[in-house]
Amino acid sequence: MKRGASARLLAALAAGSLLVAACSGDDESTDGTTAETTAETSGGETTVADTGGETTVAETTPVAEGWAVDTEACIDPDAANAPIEGEIKIGSAMPLTGGVAAAAFAPVKGGFEAYINYANENGLLGDMTVSATIEDDQYNKDLTPGAVSKQIDAGVHLFSGIIGSPNNAAVRDTLNEECIPQLNALTGSPAWGEVEDYPWTTGILVPYTVESKVYAAQLAELYPEGATVALFYVNNEFGQVYADAFKELAGDYNLEIVDEQTIEATDAAPPTSQITSIAAKAPDVVMAVPLGAGCIGFLTELAAAKAQNAGWAPATFITNTCASSLILGAAGAAADGLYTSGNLKDVVAPSNAEDPAVKEYLAYMESQGLADIAATAAAGWTTAEVTVAIIKQAMESPEGLTRASIINAARNFEYTPMLARDGVVDKMNGAEDAFLAESLQVLQYDFETATFTDIGELITEFETS
């Protein structure tokens, strides 16, 4: 495992910073009632809470056990293998203050906390209580180590749902050195697949490399005779990963890249010159990887360029990091018709109105006073749900609940979240399959209804196993 001389001090040097912007949301919770819930773990007991509502079955299926963490590499092996009893404490770091980042991610925090409440109210972990503490790092990687250290000192057993690639990277050495599970990083960096060097760190989002390949595959469906493509991406590791993966596959799908434009992550100015260059080439497709506020700026500039170039109406694909209804809503009509992707159900789509899981989710969010953020809180809800399912599987392992059994459960895991799209299965299999999610549905956004339409079938061809 990679070590630093003092991980808590040196981790702050890892990675660069990200930018994000969107509208605000309410993240306060109130007590409420729940629907009937069944949480079932393969090989264990089934917990049922009946309050007169719908029934949801959440089932985990451990894959054949073959991977186990080496606790002898830990600073304190006994602590990594010590039983956890009574209450399991989850820590996280998210931007709670600091302007637009806090506004954008408030729904994630609200959804995460809502599911923790839901799990406790429904006894999903039996007599075990689960709690979550979310510290504020203002989306600043230099503040994440302090937020995490504070929670370690307070006795947190694991971390989950830390937002941002640089933020997770800034504490990865610390958590691996101290053998504390760092589950479900809310970022699609391929770095979370480095099992040998960082066995205690996992991600929950589809890797950016896979997302880029999904778009290339979908373009081959839309343009069977081939197409010209312009790339626009933020000039940092995040954007480069997307661009490199897309370029690697472009030739296989008869896609010709005719222009390639970038923007600096710290550049708040609209990408006028970049879009002007792209428009001059009149490509069939624009593949875009902007970031945060840049999502809105890109869409606005592209809409203006299309208006100035009669007859040019390129298909626009944009990373799903921009696919929040908050961001697309702020972009307005400029977002209409764009293609993106996702693997969760659109909980506000009329087509899902009678879906039992969606109905149960929306009812609970309403009971918590969170109905207004339900659409964007689903990511936080699902992250907490997967975390609780991992904990439940660890509880039912021969070792019982320990930090080591939690990471072992996470890496020997198969589960379908309640809001997952049909056909989506989250699974990991040690070092052979280090990514929880690798299937995506391509979507098209409708500005008038603020909903997404499925394009084609769920793309599963990039699943590792």
Layout: helices, strands, pairs:
Layout: H1 7-10, E1 37-41, E2 46-49, E3 56-60, H2 77-80, E4 87-94, H3 100-121, E5 129-136, H4 144-153, E6 158-160, H5 165-177, E7 182-185, E8 201-203, H6 208-222, E9 227-234, H7 237-250, E10 255-263, H8 272-281, E11 285-289, H9 293-308, E12 315-318, H10 325-331, E13 339-342, H11 356-367, H12 374-395, H13 403-411, E14 412-415, E15 426-429, E16 441-446, E17 451-454
Parallel strand pairs: 1-3, 4-5, 4-6, 6-7, 7-8, 9-10, 9-11, 11-12
Antiparallel strand pairs: 1-2, 13-16, 14-15, 16-17
Short description:
By secondary structure, the protein is α/β, with parallel strands linked by helices. It has helices at residues 7-10, 77-80, 100-121, 144-153, 165-177, 208-222, 237-250, 272-281, 293-308, 325-331, 356-367, 374-395, 403-411, and strands at 37-41, 46-49, 56-60, 87-94, 129-136, 158-160, 182-185, 201-203, 227-234, 255-263, 285-289, 315-318, 339-342, 412-415, 426-429, 441-446, 451-454.
